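Appendix B.2, paired examples.
Example (i):
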Amino acid sequence: RQRTGVGCKRGAPRRCAHDSTQPQEGPAIASNPNPLELTAGPLRLALRADLGACIAGLWHGDLPVLRSTEAAELTSSRLSACYPLAPYSNRLGFRRFRWLGRDHTTQPNFDDNPHSVHGVAWQRPWQVVEQTTSRAVLAYDHTADAHWPFAFALRQVVELTPESLTLSLHITNHADVAQPVGLGWHPYFPKRSRSRLHIELTDRWESDASGLPTRKLPQSGIDADIAHLEFDHCFEGWRGEAKIRDEKLRLGLRSSLPYLVVFTPETKPYYCVEPVSHVPNAVHMSDPAAHGLRDLA
């Protein structure tokens, strides 16, 4: 079980832009848009179970807290506010890995990327198993296929209060052997004037030209405006808290997960602060467990 949450305070309203490009994803799924809405005080959350159990949008009044789209208008989890990452996060190198003496492959699922990215759960339809005005539980049962060779079950609990959003993710191995498991979330925050990050951490993973981590270097925390950052990195030594603010909002992000991916694309109207349980491509490292990957019985 892994858990993360965001708390917020706000100023005056302002809307945010979002990506209008339809990305290519795989495998294709039949969409059955039955959006869910949760409310608590000034917070409103829209969910799309059919699009990878993603959060379509989170608003404080009419101000987007995350990159937000009305649920009925969302066409892809990749354009959403946040989606769960399972059974691994970030890149799985060159769509192949060896586990318990056997070779396995995965499939393309992220444009022309040479790696598989973010697991399978974000591209599959989930089921709503519980719902109240401020809480929902969604479930996904995976049967072994070409995208992931082991069966598993997921439950995501989404809980809203007047001041916070809390997400919990639970995974159960349904295969007849142990499988490698990692979890995480991929939230998108809108860039606004004076968007700024403050995160205490100790190390940064540098990557090769294909995006796979190669070496760990010291990193004396992050405390800067987003406009001055050029990150697409995984970080270690994170204490589970991040402070995010701009001219409209102050957010506190807290998570039980030990790693953090920060992505600050210069040309996009968003940035990402992603709690994850392992280093990208940990399954290919000499000691996957030492880099966060779980050997789940």
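Example (ii):
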Amino acid sequence: MNFDKISNLKTLIRADSGSKIGHGHVRRDLILAQNFKDVSFACIDLPGSLASEIPYPVFTLKSADVNELVNLIKEHKFELLVIDHYGISAADEKLIKEQTSVQILSFDDNYKEHFCDYLLNVNIYADACKYVNLVPANCELIFSPLVRSEFYNEAKIKREKKFNYLIVLGGTDALNLTAQIASNLLAKNKKVAAVTTSANVNLANLQILADSEPNFSLFINSNEVARLMNESEILVISASSLVNEALVLGAKFKAVRVADNQNEMAQWLAANGREIYEADEICLSL
């Protein structure tokens, strides 16, 4: 989509991040935010939040109460609200619209009902037919993967493969799979790298593994994920937006479903002959 017609609107992005819920929503919102000239974020300060790394004004919400969000929109006269939050329902969106008259752009990954002006599904499996009766008749459907420019640039470069496997299971790796997968591969004398963030509660154990295993490289808060992917023979990634990035690179990958909101992606991967595994299956496939 060309965002020109709404790019000048004073925009508020409502999204959260943290050790338990991950960083995916905020990270994709940061890509979307580049399309707007006046952007702010509204976030609850959860443990492991990315809020301090957001390069835009951030309003800290005290709770998930939609009325607090309404008051914020009114006070600062926001014209466009971007909602990337599973906890905000269609009824909440309708209340916000009625109370503020703000235009609403809602992210959707799982074909849920929305009351919005624009609906954005960034997944490769997006299907317009499934939104019949789920959104208002005048809602504009937008199907557009949000992939950072460095992945398109990296796709043009042929690099030497430094690693047999690269493990990228999101910023928090709530299921603590990275160490399990890495240990399995290291036992087979593979060169392994892993990407994670400082919000990973299992980071100390991963650091111990990196310090004791010369064939294991750990990258924390890396800004070179695209390059690392390109330098790896096989990726082990979550069935998330990482799939879009891997496809842009043309990389070989094994995807793992690590959260319920990845069900649709997992189904699409299976239907299209891609390798997709449950958390308790991935090590058996290596």
